[in-house]
Amino acid sequence: MMQINLMINKIKGKIYSNLAMLNISYRWPTYWWRRCGYSIGKNSVISQGVLIWAWHHLDSKNVIIEDDVSIGPRVIIIVRSHSIEQIEIEGKTMGSIPGKVIIKRGAWIGAGSIILPNITIGECGVVGAGAVVTKDVLPYTIVAGVPAKEIKKIVRKI
Asked: Tag placement on the chain: N or C end, fewer CB within 10 Å?
């Protein structure tokens, strides 16, 4: 019975993630990524063409997108990767290992960015278009480039 439920969840994840890629409306992708089981906060918007690279039926707890986050088109969020140790020991990759991606409240991810596994984008952090995020982004910080580097601190005006 557990195997059947796992298979059903795997099929749902594949269908829902493919539906999320369709260009229907600006709310469409966010709805379908939520249906995959990902934690997506209130007022967060995921644009068309965003890809969450994961095993949707296993990794849904490994992507956390908090409230008021804006993710631009064609962003890639990578949750699974390969271990270097597998290559060193076996001479090849044997399977993928899960990571975690957390995008905190108010963050803004620019179009075409790539976020690698085990990354936290801090509160109100900004990732410039086309950046490759290899390290955590501090709160109220703008990063850009390949690999992404800090280019400016945001001074909050109250």
From this structure: C
